[in-house]
Structure to design on (568 residues):
């Protein structure tokens, strides 16, 4: 008696991810996050209406501070922790665990689904906001919008991988995730130099600068040469840790 | 089911000295048994440790002590064993946005079946749910959810089926269909272990039963023998009458009664023969010229029956 082959297991990743995606977007929380991601689009519309032509205000304010600095990590922490957390909470996780599917495939599917949901909202928000208020400001502004498209996509992957793993280690993953985003990245990173090496936001912005350099006043501290390997390490480490944890995850009965 | 130590090699399920505790709380304590093909009922009151035991068999919990083996493998370390295990958990939750057919097909896919659709349709037919297969599970009744869970558990034709309170929420007809299904599967050589806190459910399906009380195995074996143990145990009956003292004196003279305790408002009688007592009490009250006001068994809860088995 053997488990499923690697090829067959890989084939199941989209199947499990599809079910998880439906779980994530089928909740009221997804609607609230959609509204949250509509905020930058509304701001962009107002800027367009007011004919704002300052790239710093338009791209720096909407893409950097509002989306990458605030909305992306919030969406990622909510989808990332819910990918396993919701199933553990309602008990449906047993239908996945009582199968001969390698645990790495389940983790990969969960990350894929949560990244899909996060990126669909946040990258979509960047794209729409840019089309409305930024790309019209010229080639340089368009290049900056591309930086943030890439940074948001990379940030989605890195944040989600970390928060998916975190949700398997603690029931307080949501609280810890918010603390990381708001206290560590939101406050301490501007006070303590050197924190960039431990900031997912900085990895995302660093990778984004493969497209072009953004103004240093916006807070990007890492060069792509540093950011790319750090981002890869974070995703791989989170996936490995989550897989190891899932292999040992215990589910006690509700009544006993 | 064989007592540990005397069974032939290769039982489907084997537990040796298994215990599971959470901090200072002992949920399951020193349980050993072996199961072979057939239906076995796991009987015990709520909180006895049935779900913990089933979760250890399903690999969701590692034993704190002892060893659990299913088909010779340790399930909590070996996901490959799930190719031969079907599990119906107690919790009702099933993906509410899926139709019944989608849910069972999803289970078939995760089992790596070559044609999950055909297997899913066959499993749905087995649990008599064809008419509702295209409805979202979220719209199902509790009994229908139980049945779709069973279909999901047997879609890959497993050798071992573990069911936690499978009859919860089913109407009488659905129960009979499910009981027949389990019996058919047992005849086909499957090993089926299902938990229940209702004796009548267990005795209708399981030829063998395991009784678990407060985390310990209180009794195991043929259900008829255990049923006899349960019915022939000492019973206490509280009686209120127009003259308790006179009735107590009359009852004391009968050999079927081995203790009588006179209280301020009633008399408590202990007997090992309930059926004889039922005939005796009417004649005794008539002969004593006493009017019976109330006859109440004092210890008929299932818990008290289980406690008696533990003390034996």
């Amino acid at each position: 008696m053997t488990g499923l082959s690697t090829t067959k297991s890989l084939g199941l990743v989209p199947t499990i991810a599809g079910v998880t995606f439906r779980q994530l977007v089928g909740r009221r929380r997804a609607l609230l996050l959609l509204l949250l991601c509509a905020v930058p689009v509304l701001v962009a519309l107002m800027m367009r209406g007011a004919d704002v032509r300052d790239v710093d205000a338009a791209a720096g304010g909407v893409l950097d501070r509002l989306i990458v600095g605030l909305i992306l990590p919030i969406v990622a922490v909510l989808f990332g922790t819910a990918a396993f957390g919701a199933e553990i909470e309602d008990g449906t996780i047993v239908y996945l665990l009582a199968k001969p599917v390698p645990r790495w495939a389940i983790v990969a599917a969960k990350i894929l689904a949560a990244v899909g949901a996060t990126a669909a909202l946040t990258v979509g928000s960047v794209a729409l906001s840019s089309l409305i208020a930024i790309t019209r400001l010229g080639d340089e502004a368009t290049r900056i919008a591309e930086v943030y498209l890439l940074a948001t996509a990379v940030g989605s992957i890195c944040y989600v991988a970390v928060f998916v793993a975190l949700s398997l280690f603690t029931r307080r993953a949501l609280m810890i995730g918010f603390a990381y985003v708001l206290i560590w990245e939101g406050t301490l990173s501007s006070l303590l130099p050197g924190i960039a090496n431990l900031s997912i936001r900085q990895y995302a912005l660093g990778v984004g600068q493969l497209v072009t350099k953004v103004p240093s006043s916006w807070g990007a501290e890492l060069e792509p040469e540093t950011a790319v390997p750090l981002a890869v390490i974070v995703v791989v480490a989170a996936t490995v840790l989550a897989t190891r944890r899932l292999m040992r995850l215990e589910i006690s009965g509700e009544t006993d | 089911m064989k007592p540990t130590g005397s069974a032939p090699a290769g039982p489907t399920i084997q537990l040796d000295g298994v215990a599971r505790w959470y901090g200072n709380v002992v949920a399951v304590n020193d349980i050993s048994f072996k199961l072979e093909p057939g239906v076995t009922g796991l009987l015990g009151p709520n909180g006895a440790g049935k779900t913990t035991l089933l979760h250890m068999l399903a690999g969701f919990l590692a034993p704190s002590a002892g060893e659990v083996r299913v088909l010779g493998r340790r399930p909590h370390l070996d996901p490959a064993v799930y190719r031969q295990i079907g599990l119906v958990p107690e919790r009702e939750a099933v993906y509410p946005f899926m139709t019944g057919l989608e849910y069972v097909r999803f289970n078939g896919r995760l089992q790596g079946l070559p044609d999950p659709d055909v297997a899913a349709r066959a499993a749905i037919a087995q649990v008599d749910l064809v008419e509702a297969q295209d409805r979202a599970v979220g719209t199902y009744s509790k009994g229908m959810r139980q049945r779709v869970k069973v279909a999901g558990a047997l879609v890959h034709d497993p050798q071992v089926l573990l069911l936690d309170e499978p009859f919860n929420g089913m109407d009488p007809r659905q129960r009979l269909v499910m009981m027949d299904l389990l019996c058919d599967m047992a005849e086909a050589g499957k090993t089926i272990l299902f938990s229940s806190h209702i004796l009548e459910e267990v005795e209708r399906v399981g030829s063998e039963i395991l009784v678990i009380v407060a985390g310990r195995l209180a009794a195991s074996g043929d259900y008829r023998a255990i049923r006899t143990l349960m019915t022939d145990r000492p019973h206490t009956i509280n009686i209120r009458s127009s003259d308790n003292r006179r009735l107590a004196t009359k009852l004391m003279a009968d050999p079927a009664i081995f203790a009588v305790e006179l209280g301020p408002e009633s008399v408590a009688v202990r007997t090992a023969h309930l059926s004889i007592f039922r005939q005796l009490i009417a004649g005794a009250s008539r002969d004593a010229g006493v009017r019976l006001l109330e006859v109440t068994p004092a210890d008929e809860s299932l818990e008290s029956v289980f406690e008696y088995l533990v003390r034996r």
Notes: Chain A touches chain B through 32 residues (CB under 8 Å). The mean pLDDT of chain A is 91.
